[in-house]
Amino acid sequence: QVQLVESGGGLVQAGGSLRLSCAASGRAESGRTFSSYTMGWFRQVPGKDREYVALISGNGDNSYYDDSVKGRFTVSRDNAKNIVYLQMNSLKPEDTAVYYCGASWLWSIYGSNYDYWGQGTQVTVSL
C-alpha cells in the first residue's frame, strides 16, 4: 500500500510563498513504482468539492495547472526521493484551503481517478 504524507502548510500573508511537499512510501499492490504515477495537487475548502491545482507526469516532463494558479504555482518531483513539491508564490487569500496530494495511473484532473491520497495540509493566506 502506498502512503502519501503532505507537509509544509501554514499561515502566510498575501503575497508570500510556501512550498508543500508530498512524500511517498510503501509499495503499490500492482508493483508500480512512484515514477509510474501522475502526481496531482488538489485543494478543498469547507462545503466545496476537492479541486485540482496542478499535475505532474511520472517522469516530470509534463505539468498542468489550473488557470487560477498558473504563473504562481510550480509543481516538481524528485523520483529518487519519492517526493513531489508544490511551490506556491504570490499567494492570495482565495488560495486558503486544505491541500492534498494524490497518485494516479492516469493523466487526469479528476480526483475520482486517483488511487492514493495524503491526509492534507492546511494553507491559510491572510490579508
Round the mean pLDDT to the nearest integer and report it.
96
Name the shape in a single word: globular
User: What percentage of the residues does DSSP assign to strands (E)?
Assistant: over 45%
Number of strands: 11
Determine the structural class based on helices, strands and strand pairing: mainly beta
Number of helices: 0
Could you give a short account of the major beta sheet? 7 strands, mixed
State Rg: 14 Å
Estimated helix fraction: under 10%
List the helices and strands in order.
EEEEEEEEEEE
Which consecutive residue ranges, at least 5 long each, have pLDDT under 50?
A: none
Features of the shown structure:
single chain, 127 residues, seven-stranded mixed beta sheet, mainly beta
Describe the protein's architecture and organization.
The protein has no helices and eleven strands. The chain is mainly beta and 127 residues long. The strands form two sheets. Strands 2, 4, 5, 6, 9, 10 and 11 form a seven-stranded mixed sheet that branches. Strands 1-3-8-7 form a four-stranded antiparallel sheet, with no helix packed on it. Strand 7 and strand 8 form a beta hairpin. The protein is globular. The N and C termini lie far apart (40 Å). The mean pLDDT is 96.
Question: Which helices and strands occur, and which strands form pairs?
Answer:
Elements: E1 2-7, E2 10-13, E3 18-26, E4 38-44, E5 51-56, E6 63-65, E7 73-78, E8 83-88, E9 97-104, E10 116-117, E11 121-126
Parallel strand pairs: 2-11
Antiparallel strand pairs: 1-3, 3-8, 4-5, 4-9, 5-6, 7-8, 9-10, 9-11
